[in-house]
Amino acid sequence: MSTVAPPRPAAAPPPPARPSLGARAWGLWLRWWRRLTAMRTAIVLLFLLALAAIPGSLLPQRSLNQNAVRQYFADHPTLAPVLDRLYAFDVFGSPWFAAVYLLLFVSLIGCVVPRLAEHVRALRAAPPPAPRRLQRLPDSGELATALPGPAVLDVVEEELRVRRFRVVRRDGAASTPPGPAASGPELSAEKGFWKESGNLLFHLSLVALLLGLAGGKLWGYEGSILVTEGQGFCNSFQQYDTHSSGALVDSGDLSPLCIDLEDFRAEYEEDLTAASYTADIRYGGPGEEGEPATIGVNDPLRLDGDRVYVTGHGYAPRFTVTLPDGTAFTDVSAPFLPSDQTTMSSEGALKLPDLGAGVEDQLALEGFFAPTGLMQGGVLTSIDPRPLNPQVAVLAYQGYLGLDSGLPQSVYSLDASQIERGRLAEVGRANLAVGETLTLPDGTAVTFTGVSQFAALQFSHDPGQVWVLAAAIAVLVGLLALLFLRRERFFARVGPAPDGGGTVLTVGSLTRGGGESATRFAELTGQLRAALDERSPTPSAPPSGGAAPEPEVSPRDR
Amino acid sequence: MTVDPSLAELSDRLFSIAVALYSVAVVAFSAQLAFGRRPARELVPAGSGGADAGAPAAPLRSDRWGLAGLAVTVLGAAAHAGVLITRGMAADRLPWGNMYEFATAVVLVGVVAYLVLATRVPAVRDIGAFVLAPVVISLVAIGLFLYTETGPLVAALRSSWLAVHVSSAILGSGLFFVSGIASVLYLLRSRQEAGADGSFLSRLPGAATLDRVAHRTAVFAFPIYTFAMIAGAIWAESAWGRFWGWDPKETWMFISWVVYAGYLHARTTVGWRGRPAAWVNVVGFAVVLFNLLYVNMVSTGLHSYGGLD
Ligand code: HEM
Fold first, then answer.
1. What is residue A28's predicted lDDT score, i.e. its pLDDT?
2. DSSP secondary structure of A346-357
3. Ligand 1 centre from A217 Cα, in Å?
4. In Å, what is the CA distance from B213 to each residue of A4, A345, B40, B122, B176?
5. Do A275 and B262 touch (CB under 8 A)?
6. Can you give the pLDDT at residue A420?
């Protein structure tokens, strides 16, 4: 494989040194620009990019896990704010990360565009003239033949054209000053432009990929929501539990789409490994009946530019609450978040802020749900993720929930400050199996009536995605061409044999990429020899001094 | 899907056999280094690096040790492949669903890559001890710390992208390991050629050969690794709802990819060729290793399929 530095496009000649400020600034700029687009800068920037990504994997990131970041702040109260000011929790969106990759890409463009121009020019230009001393090329050799010079070059040209070289012949004596090495007509041939094309495709596709990523970030959005069986949602930011969107997303422009979750199934292996999650949904415009579809892990709903995923699941225990006056709230439920994926033991809260006119107190249940419950030492635990024996351990509270206090609170737990301040008081606790009832002191009856499943659904819109995929494939194609193709230049020159009889053909080649150029060169010269012998009236004479008729191939392989 | 216990047990037994055979190979390769004279076979003939010169000579006695080591390594690799095949058959799935299987497969790729290189470039045979010793150590560590019972795959892994993404990641990583070892040896050897003392080092292939082996292997591995990354992104798009999310595993794959791009650049840049480039390759090697071990075992992310608690 070549270890030769790629020919850098010749730097523009420095402007004439004039004391004018503009010229000096221009000179300074040129110097900096050349430094920025030099290969060694690229290496350093690549290194910086790798380094810059490291904190993003070692510190919790907001984009991945808000809770982990909050936890980090709690654990490191002095360090965390300092790190936060350095964007340590938003590394991949930080200005310094952007600075590194933008510099890298500016360098890349500055490096590749001149090469592109050069390549286009080289595509149209004839192969360069043969160097004066062919023997100095990495691979070279001499062949003697009885054919006259022009006929020899005819044969060489034909053989090279069959091998899809571009060939040009020049009258050597006219174009190079006569000398011991350069004399006689010559031939230059070249092939393998795809290698450089691959190089350019590779680097330019990286730019295209970055643009696709940026577009997706600016115009894309994502929303997540928990949906219990029998319920649904429509695509709007108000409805999502959490959402994020690019700077250029107009919340009025979201695709008008509604999804209803009809049924959710989780299947398990014998050893309780989760085997599959499937959700039967209906999707369509608001108010429409909707099309049925089944989605699951690895199998999202794909619509023109939008996708709907199942990203998780869990249980929502159902309760029937009967007030002392007989008013019943049937099968109210809330999703309980799984705290352990293997047993699906879950925690959550059900809040009933409005129990009807005349009822002052609000009611809430907070507790633990076990799909397959087992009492161990008086504590309810779950031993199986499937709902074989659903049980809940609940605490019932009455009082003021603080929902309208203006402060946001989690839907999955009660506001502890309301309990501390005594506004919300515990009024009962029980472990309930399906059908069992907890009766509160005021006569309110809470019955555990069963369990529904919920699915965590995610709605994603990324207009850059297809573009990024196409760019990535182009990157790979370019890379393969750049790494595995080779560029070859082949030169030949003929001159009279020193003893006056016949012709000496001198050949040499210059290869970039592909390795083992010596063997290929030997093969090619062997075939040239055979072709020459075929045309010769008499078997060709060995070159001066009766050496073996084999081409004298330099064994060097760079 | 039930697990066939007798096949699972056979797989575990083959694991021990592979480790034992590789250990024998290490002994044979060490004997070659200890008793051998200077290796006379060279990939790069005169002109490409000082100590590489030397005419091909008749096989030395040390060669017999080398050949024996090679033969035992082939047997070991067969047993090693058997570990994965029987495990896959036992659980009726591709045998790379957890870290134990993944790491075992990466090491196998390394061994096979070494064997292929050693048959194509005879001088590479002489680095056998330096490839097989890390192989034995990593397999023992894998057996001790990563062992997981044969079992079914979790839901998220049930996709044909498992075959595409994980296979190419295994292939790329295993090849990078061989490349990294070659670069480490190159760094040692080039210092020794420059005059530093190091008796047994002189029995290694020449620095130029080691550098070329490291580069060629990395050139082969880089597109495979690139492909693994793209396939991973395509899979992530359908499994997790986004094709790239800077999950720790993704981040470290990105870091290693960037480092290897740096290595390939360095190899063609004046002033970086030779030892600096080799150091970049060694860093890449360390990053891939770190990604394989630390990120799977310590950090939590979506790629938590290690099968470890
Ligand atoms: C996004 C960052 C970049 C990546 C991932 C990247 C990757 C690569 C890779 C993998 C190669 C193949 C090396 C080989 O031939 O073995 C390469 C070649 C090359 N790169 Fe880059 N590159 C990047 C940026 C740049 C920049 C900024 C420059 C210019 C300053 C540059 C100039 C070149 C040149 C000239 C070659 C060809 C080397 C040759 O033909 O031997 N690249 N690049």
1. 87
2. EEEEEEE----T
3. 26
4. 17, 54, 18, 12, 11
5. no
6. 86
Q: What is the pLDDT of residues A421-440, one digit of tens each?
A: 888 889 989 999 999 999 99
Q: Is A47 in the pocket of ligand 1 (CB under 6 A)?
A: no
Residue-wise pLDDT for B265-291, tens only, equals 888 877 778 889 999 999 999 999 988
User: What are the tens digits of pLDDT across the range B238-247?
Assistant: 888 889 888 8
Compute the nearest-CA separation of B265 from chain A (Å).
Answer: 7
State if pTM tops 0.90: no
Mean pLDDT by 10 residues, chain A (558 residues): 44 58 87 81 88 89 84 90 90 90 90 90 85 85 83 88 88 50 76 89 94 91 91 90 87 87 87 84 88 90 89 91 88 90 90 82 91 88 90 91 78 84 88 92 91 92 92 96 88 82 86 72 88 72 39 37
How are beta strands A328-333 and A337-340 bridged, if at all?
Answer: unpaired
Angle in degrees, CA B268, B270, B272, rounded to 5: 80
Domain that holds residue B110: 1-35+64-156
Tell me if chain A has a CB within 8 Å of the CB of B120: no
Q: Ligand 1: does its nearest atom lie under 6 Å from the Cβ of A444? A: no
**Which residues on A lie below 8 Å from B241 (Cβ)?**
222, 300, 307, 309, 311, 458, 460
Using the beta-carbon criterion (under 8 Å), do B223 and A40 form an inter-chain contact? no
Measured in Å, residue A305 CA sits from the centre of ligand 1 at 33
Q: Which atom of ligand 1 is nearest to the CA of A37?
A: 30
Q: Which residue has the tokens 């009258």?
A: A171
Q: Do residues A309 and A188 share a domain?
A: no
Pairing mode of beta strands A242-245, A221-228: antiparallel
Is B128 part of a structural domain of the chain?
yes
Q: By the CB < 8 Å criterion, does A7 face chain B?
A: no
Expressed in angstroms and rounded, the spacing between residue A200 Cα and the centre of ligand 1 is: 9
Strand partners, A365: A350, A396
pLDDT, residue A457, reads 92
Q: What are the b/e assignments for A143-180, b being 16+ CB within 10 Å?
A: bbbbbebebbbebbbebbeeeebebbbbebeeebeeee
Average pLDDT over residues B72-86: 93
Coil vs helix vs strand at A233? strand
Query: Highest-confidence range of B79-83, B155-159, B296-300, by mean pLDDT?
Result: B79-83
Token pair for residue A338? Answer: 């799984």
The whole-angstrom separation of Cα B282 and Cα B176 is 9
Residue B76 scores a pLDDT above 90? yes
Q: Domain for residue A171, yes or no? A: yes
d(CA A323, CA A440): 10
Number of domains present in the structure of chain B: 2
* Closest chain A residue by Cα to residue B255: A50
Q: Ligand 1 pocket check: which of A199, A510, A512 to mutate, most ligand atoms within 8 Å of Cβ?
A: A199
- Inform me whether the C-beta atom of residue B273 falls under 8 Å from chain A C-beta atoms: yes
DSSP letter, residue A131:
P
> Can you give the pLDDT at residue B56?
41
Range of A82's domain?
A: 29-124
| A460 part of contact set with chain B, CB < 8 Å | yes
Question: CA separation (Å) from A254 to A30, A227, A235, A291?
Answer: 47, 19, 7, 19
Examine residue B207 and state whether it is found in any structural domain, yes or no.
yes
Contact between A293 and A282 under an 8 Å Cβ cutoff? The reply is yes
State the DSSP H helix or E strand holding residue A393, giving kind and residue range, or none if neither: strand A391-399
State the Cα–Cα distance between residues B83 and B95, nearest whole angstrom.
9
Quick one: which of B244, B120, B133 has its CA closest to B181? Answer: B133
> What is the pLDDT confidence band of residue B159, given thresholds at 50, 70 and 90?
confident
In a domain, A266, yes or no: yes
- The reply to whether ligand 1 has any atom less than 6 angstroms from the CB of A482 is yes
A300 → chain B, closest CA residue:
B238
Angstroms from B217 CA to nearest CA on chain A = 12
**Does one domain contain both B16 and B100?**
yes
